[in-house]
Structures are given as C-alpha cells and as structure tokens.
Amino acid sequence: MLKKFQIPIIVGNWKMNPQGADEAKKKYNEIVKKLVYKSGTVVIAPPIVYLRDLYASKKGQNSALFLGVQDVFYEQAGAFTGKISPDMAVSNGAAVALIGHSEMRSAGDTDDVVNAKIHAALSARLFVIICIGEKERNDEGVHFEFIKNQLIRTLRGIKKEDASRICIAYEPVWAIGTGTSINSTDLHEMTLYIRKQLALDTSLKVFSTVPILYGGSVTPENAADFIIHGNADGLLIGKQSLDPGSFVAIYDSVSRVKKTQVRSK
Ligand code: PGA
C-alpha cells in the first residue's frame, strides 16, 4: 500500500500501449525483475484493462512498485458510457491517478473538469499526479501566467489534509512525445516559479512543498539532469517507459542522485 510519495517519484505512462495483455504482463514483469529498489516511489500507469492482471502478477515480488491509472471520471457511478470511476480504479489495484494529462485536455478536459476529477480521486483515497503545462512559449513569458492560472484553477477547493497525496507534473506540451525536452535551466526557472506561486497565493500555501515532477521526452541520458539542475523531484515518462530497460535505466540514474541534490531547497 502506498503510504506517502517518496522522492524521487518516477512514473511510467504507457498511454494506449501495448496492444495485448500478454505483452503488458511481459513488460511489467521485466520491470519488476530489473528494478532494484534504492529510494523513491515508482509507478506504472498502464491502460486500465491490464491493471488487474498486473496487480496480480506484482504481488509479493516488488513492494516498491505501484500501479496507476491514466485518468478517472469525476462521478462515482451512473450513466457515463466509457468512463472509469475512482473506486473502480482502486478496486482494480491502482494507488495513483494521473489527472489533467495534456492528451486528456486536448480531448476536452478543461481546468474545471480536471479539478472535479482531482476531488473525486482524492475522495477515493487515490494519490494524484496533477499534470499542467503550457502549449507554447514566447519572449514575453506568457507561459508563466498560463501555469499560474492552471495551478489556481486545478487546485481549487482541495483540502489541506489531502496535500500529502498530491504532486504536480510540469509537462510542457511542446516537449511531450516530440524528442525535444526542456533544458534544465528553463526547468529550474519553472520549478522555482511554481513553488513561488504556491507559496505566495494564500489559498495554495498548503501545497507549497508538494513534489514537482517533469515530463516531456525524458530519456536515460537526460533524466538525471532534470533532477540535479532542473530541481525536479521526479519524472513522468511516456515513450521510454514502454522499454523496461530504458525505464529502469532512468530510475537507476535518478535514484543514484544524492538526497541533498534531489531537493535543493
Ligand atoms: P514522452 O511523454 O515521455 O513520450 O514525451 C510524456 C507524457 O506524456 O507524460
């Protein structure tokens, strides 16, 4: 059972992959086998149809690895064709929910919808990774205002006692799946900006120490740089999480970073 997010937080988002249950089990078992736990929290978020199988295969083998879902709906039950409730996710083995991923946002999720989903997920006792990120940047720095508004809108009304089950994943949309990641100087600037906004806004103060992850074209080669120089507390990994060797290599490179470097605050 996941009791607390431990830093570094390394999350694999498999998106709509792989295409069959056998392949999903194979990939997952390979991760279980290869991953030698050192520190942190490791999460794999497969398509929900594989969740139960993976949960069963994980049991007793690797207590450091947790399962997540890529989304949940904000209602608990009813006539909502195609949706998954937070309780369904929990009863199938999920400890964590990604909410507000840019691919869900581009399919129609507004900040208000994201906020409602966060509330529902927290009520079901899930840990929540809230994804935020700008679509573009310009010389005037419009992305700062954009991120500030996303923070205010998505965190609205979340209770202080739930703050320890939340982390924020900063994923600039232009870096997701493009092979062009952010550079660690710009990431450092953004993690500081997010922390400052959380600390300055009276309604967000309780979230000022939540972990901040980075996501967007993370690889085994660039992963440690985001943690050491970008000041991220963890990583959200798409494409490279589908390759068990790469995913574990990312975990290894990051979990080797000394605790003092992981959070230089
Ligand atoms: P990527 O995806 O690592 O393939 O860029 C990241 C994400 O979508 O969370």
Short overview:
This protein has helices at residues 21-34, 51-58, 86-91, 102-105, 111-123, 142-154, 184-200, 223-228, 244-255, 259-262, and strands spanning 9-13, 41-45, 65-69, 96-99, 127-132, 166-170, 212-215, 234-237.
Overview of the molecule:
This protein has helices spanning 21-34, 51-58, 86-91, 102-105, 111-123, 142-154, 184-200, 223-228, 244-255, 259-262; strands spanning 9-13, 41-45, 65-69, 96-99, 127-132, 166-170, 212-215, 234-237. It is built from ten helices and eight strands. Strands 1-2-3-4-5-6-7-8 form an eight-stranded parallel barrel, surrounded by five helices. β7 (212-215), α8 and β8 (234-237) form a beta-alpha-beta unit. α1 (21-34) runs parallel beside α9. The mean pLDDT is 93. The protein is globular. Bound molecules: 2-phosphoglycolic acid. The site of 2-phosphoglycolic acid (PGA) has 12 residues, from β8. 2-phosphoglycolic acid is lined by residues 13, 171, 176-177, 215-218, 236-239.
